[in-house]
Amino acid sequence: MRSFLINGNGLVATPKWEPNCWVNIVKPTQEDKEFALETLGVPLAFYEDIEDVDERPRIEIEDGWTFILMRLPCKVEEDETTAPFTTVPLGIMFKGDVFVSVCFYKTDLIPDFINYTKRKGIKRTDNVNFIFRLLLSSSIWFLKYLKQIKSRALLAENQLEQSIRNEDLQTLLKLEKCLVYFTTSLRGNDMLAHRLKNMRTYQDLYDYELVEDVEIESKQALEMTNIYSNIFSGMTETYASVISNNLNIVMKRLTTISIVLMLPTLIASYFGMNLETGTTIFNNLFLIVIVISIVLTGITAYFLLRNGGSKKLS
After folding, report:
1. Edge to edge, what strands does the sheet with 2-8 contain?
2. How far is it, in rounded angstroms, from Cα 209 to Cα 215?
3. Pairing of strands 22-26, 98-103
4. Is residue 35 within 8 Å of residue 65, measured between CB atoms?
5. What's the DSSP call for residue 37?
6. pLDDT (tens digit, 9 = 90+) per residue, 43-80?
7. CB of 172 closer than 8 Å to CB of 232
8. Rounded to whole angstroms, how far apart are CA atoms 268 and 263?
9. Nearest to 113 by CA among 94, 97, 92
10. Which of 44, 35, 38 is nearest to 4 (CA)?
11. Which residues pair with 24 in a beta bridge?
12. What are phi and psi of 221, to 5 degrees?
């Protein structure tokens, strides 16, 4: 799906391509691909790089085309194996009066960014500052998703305090995986911003307040991601230790019960083969065996309790 956006009250849609308009292509179809490659002349190599979900942020200049790839946060449909948040590549290519952005995934960032330009009356005056605005919006959305990750982690933590379930531990592991994606992408975007800032070709065009805002938001998002990542790592290790400790407790209880039951079983087995009357006739000899079993069992249980075997486990 492609749309054409021109300056108006912010960025407004227009039905067809115009020089210096923003061609925004999201989840491109074959028709969109042909329009970008054949009509606009976008290099095929750049288009294919954007299609690679693992592509890293960078800047390339080739045959007059400037290619900039950044990473955007994205919320995905959840299942048992995937993480709820990830990052996807957004490719921006411009040359002369052509300015194209391509993203193979639908994100919340692009529609929100367009609405933001309408609310604030922001126009695309040049390509470089427009890219910095996209980087700023990207950092802000990273922070938004970090808040959602924090809320999900608190909910999982509350569930784990009541009872440790595999589902809650898997939730923490998925969220920790999201933070790894965020950390890698934020570092890449930060390096991209620094390189773009230091390019002599565009230094006279920069809005330095905007560039400063991008650097501040990027550092804040990266620091928050690192903090949450450290917290989640510690939390996961803690609950793993709790699970191991609970397993030890169960094994100690089972061992204690086995030892306590072993003595009466041993005595009953021995005398059961040597009593003439067996257990069918209640006589003094049978009573003595029962008393011996009870006394030895009581002594063993008392000894184990006194030494903390079961008392500390309860």
Report:
1. 10-14, 2-8, 22-26, 98-103, 85-95, 65-75, 58-62
2. 10
3. parallel
4. no
5. I
6. 999 999 999 888 999 999 888 899 999 999 998 876 65
7. yes
8. 8
9. 92
10. 35
11. 3, 101
12. -65, -40
